[in-house]
Amino acid sequence: MSDNTTTWWTPDPSSGVGSGDNAWQLTAASLVALQSVPGLVALYAGIMKKKWAINSAFMALYAFAAVLVCWVLWAYKASFGEQMLPFVGKPNNVLGINTMLQQSYLPAIGVGQQFPLATMIYFQFVFAAITVVIMAGAFLGRMNFYAWMVFVPLWLTLSYTVGAFSLWGGGFLFDLGVIDYSGGYVIHLSSGTAGFIGSYWIGPRLAKDREDARPNSIPGTLVGAGILWIGWNGFNGGDPYAASADAGVAVLNTNLCTAVSLLTWLLCDTLYFKQPSVIGAVQGMITGLVAITPAAGVVSGWGAILLGLGSGSIPWFTMNIAAKKFKPFERHFDDTLGVTHTHMVAGFVGGFGTGLWATKEGCAAFGLTNPGGAVAGNGIQLGYQMAGACFIIGWNLVWTSLILLFIKHVLRIPLRMSEEQLLIGDDSVHGEAAYVFGPCEAHDPEQGYIHGELVDTNTDEPGLTGTNTSHITSEKEPMKNGESSRNT
User: Fold this and answer.
1) Which chain regions cross the lipid bilayer (predicted)?
2) What is the rounded CA–CA span in Å between residue 262 and residue 334?
3) Does domain 25-410 have CATH number 3.40.50.300?
4) What angle do CA 317, 163, 415 make, to 5 degrees?
5) In terms of DSSP H, where are the helices of 113-217?
């Protein structure tokens, strides 16, 4: 039904930008969307073993689609609508045409933006989606896909919306003065914490998959990593909600911190392992992107460099030294891609660094009343940042655990794949393989092939029939090489 009293958004001539804010916001949202699809889809498919390429990419693809449906039905309003509790808004749908056409407005903050609400809904959706996709990196190579299908909407509803409203939507952490420019806490600290505790409840991969976890396609991994890096221009550059000077600062600082972090991680690898690692460099790139996220538009270029030094060294140490020294962590917390280190640790480093190096001018440019961080004489900002981090970590430790236990014990859906699925991989879970050599029927028993082997269909026993077997390929496991976690 139409509501003729609704005022549709039109560009405000007095803003001086016309529809420029809307154009930039949609562009930024599209850049962030590309980080998930195809960015992390390609990165996951390339960085995992060949037998898990399909499953890993599919977990990311499913999450992207599932989050969008939940987002428009109830989760956007719970994250950015009218306040229901100090940490969450009132859930509701945003599907009405007049709702989508009206000017974007955050009711719990009392601030409007120069673009329609539909633009804000989509922009915030891509952030919610990539949070869940990042978390998947900790569960790859063994999580039951059916459990993942249930987990995604539950975690979005019970965890993500709380962090988003508390810090961005006008909740109690926003009122306290915690600075999270673009999701260092809402996205990275939450996904890293959930990945950490979730890896415990789901259980580890097969021992041989952990011992030999070499990527099946490093060039494919680099393609995904490149999309992730450049897409971060929209990730951080879009959060002033305007085509403003601060957006430009955020983009420059994002790239500067990332470059310093990558080089720092590379130096640590070279000094400790005696050889540079491209996968290690990708890890350093990611930690730089994560650490600058809560600080992007409120720190100076020097602050971005200092954050890059911290994000390239501290997560490197926790991943390659501390975690290996602490045997219970290695044994019970099988975080496949090291999300605990690249997102939880790096997100904490970024949040703490924001409390140190936020400038008064940067905060003002972003529309904050905070008088900067410790470098600007406002040392209490460090306390606010730690309070925000403790809440996000605590909430996710509890609720991620409760959700997974509910799926396992109430819904009776196993969190981990069966042993047969873990042994075979994609072909057993999805009936598909990433790289099929020979006829396209290579996994179809009705056409005479099972897992790439020609079968005598009269006896149902695997075996070669006929005389031309040149197209048959055997797949052998690579030799174990004892690679460090920097290459997983």
Assistant:
1) 23-45, 57-76, 121-140, 145-165, 185-203, 215-232, 252-273, 285-309, 386-407
2) 24
3) no
4) 70
5) 117-136, 145-155, 161-164, 172-176, 190-202, 207-211
